[in-house]
Prior knowledge:
- The protein has a single domain, classed as Tumour Suppressor Smad4.
- It contains no helices and 11 strands.
- The strands form 2 sheets. It has a 6-stranded antiparallel beta sheet with strand order 2-1-11-10-7-8, with no helix packed on it. A 5-stranded mixed beta sheet has the order 4-3-5-6-9, with no helix packed on it.
- A hairpin with a 2-residue loop joins strand 10 and strand 11.
Amino acid sequence: MPSVRVGERVFRLDRPVLVGRRPALPRVVTGPAPELVTVPSPSGLVSSSHVLVHAAGSTAVVDDLHSTNGTVVRAPGRPPHRMPSGASMVVLTGTVVDIGDGNTFEVLSPFVRSVPPGGRDSSGPWPSPPSAPGPSRTPRERS
């Protein structure tokens, strides 16, 4: 399950994340209710409910919620792309999304895990990496 880092906070996308200046739930919510994340926007460049980020399998999807000033996506190794108002885009690990007024969030790997400030991790066991086909081998020393 991918995660996003908004400022210093990390949100696992086991439910959608709605980011904006004053985010509010839509009138009708299907599925899990989104986590509402408020970001500062002293210049008013960030819309009240600017973007919705949710998981699609092991990838993340960014939905621009018809923001007034737009959303810019910076995928690793690619030039910045301005999303059309109301557009959706599948984004990869390492993508940085800029919603204005210095507010960005980064899409993190499905295997990244955050530990709350108390130091206890309650998110369950780490996912196991896929095992290689064939018999397991014992490591050998190099000579």
